Amino acid sequence: MTQLKANIHPKAKIGKNTVVEPFATICEDVEVGEGCWIGPNTILMPGTRLGKNCKIFPGAVISADPQDLKFEGEYTTTNIGDNTTIREFVTINKGTKAKGKTVIGNNCLLMSYVHVAHDCEIKDHAILGSYAGLAGEVEVDNWAIVSPGNLVHQFVRIGAHVMIQGGSKVTKDVPPFVLAGRDPLAFTGINSIGLRRRNISNETIYAIQEVYRIIYQRGLNISDAIDFVDVNLPASNERDEIVLFIRESKRGIIKGYFDGEEKN
Do the Cβ atoms of 239 and 229 come closer than 8 Å? Predict the structure, then answer.
């Protein structure tokens, strides 16, 4: 009986105790950390940088060329952190000259059929549900959940501890700690369940809620609301994170939804 083997380029670097299953393809200029599992029929293309203890499931394609007509073959990479799981048929494109790399953090989960386009940055503990699609240069902060079927516009930023309703179109930035839902996508509350699961105190959650009451329910425009928060609410890491996120937003943040009417 012929033993089936993986196709591993002789210049690829494979860490100790990593298992590469039959029919996997690992190209030149690929680095795989220790203790990984590379499933059958996976493809790690040039520029892949994979951390320790990652799992790559069948059909995944990592570090393919960007689907961007401005890409001219420049050298770029895809950097994936430790303990991240990439499920079946996920596609992750490498960076372009815009940022030089696509980044997936530590302890992330990318479920089946997720697409991550060029130059995206996904930070630690993020979850991308099945069939979610991220266009180029999207940022997803720590602990965010991008639910199944979400379509995320290029350059959008999704804040830390956010949870977005499944099947949503995300065309504006989603600030930290919130639940986002409805169509068009809007602020629908605080992700209090997720925050409590991460041992965030009730006192901190109430303080976050007060920030968003001012932003979305006082009838102020966003700029005035942020100025009011900055002057009148006690300083905290969470308050400052929200204020900085909104002030730095380039696409603008999602609208509010209160008593059935959207608020600017």
Answer: yes
Asked if residue 66 has a cis previous peptide bond (ω within 30° of 0), the answer is no
Q: From CA 26, how far away is CA 10, in angstroms rounded?
A: 9
pTM of the model: 0.94
264 residues of the chain, pLDDT tens digit each = 345 799 999 999 999 999 999 999 999 999 999 999 999 999 999 999 999 999 999 999 999 999 999 999 999 999 999 999 999 999 999 999 999 999 999 999 999 999 999 999 999 999 999 999 999 999 999 999 999 999 999 999 999 999 999 999 999 999 999 999 999 999 999 999 999 999 999 999 999 999 999 999 999 999 999 999 999 999 999 999 999 999 999 999 999 975 344 444
Q: Are residues 113 and 33 part of one domain?
A: yes
Whole-angstrom distance, CA of residue 76 vs CA of residue 73:
9
CA angle at residue 44 from 40 to 48, to 5 degrees? 145
Whether the CB-CB separation of 19 and 8 falls below 8 Å is answered with: no
Domain count, the chain: 2
- Whether residues 29 and 126 fall in one domain: yes
Whole-angstrom distance, CA of residue 210 vs CA of residue 188: 14
Domain around 199? 195-263
> Is residue 145 included in any domain, yes or no?
no
Residue 1 in domain: no
Q: What is the CATH number of the domain that holds 89?
A: 2.160.10.10
Q: Provide the sign of the torsion angle of the four alpha carbons 143, 144, 146, 152, taken in this order.
A: negative
Name residue, tokens 């030089």. Answer: 100
Asked if 135 and 201 sit in the same domain, the reply is no
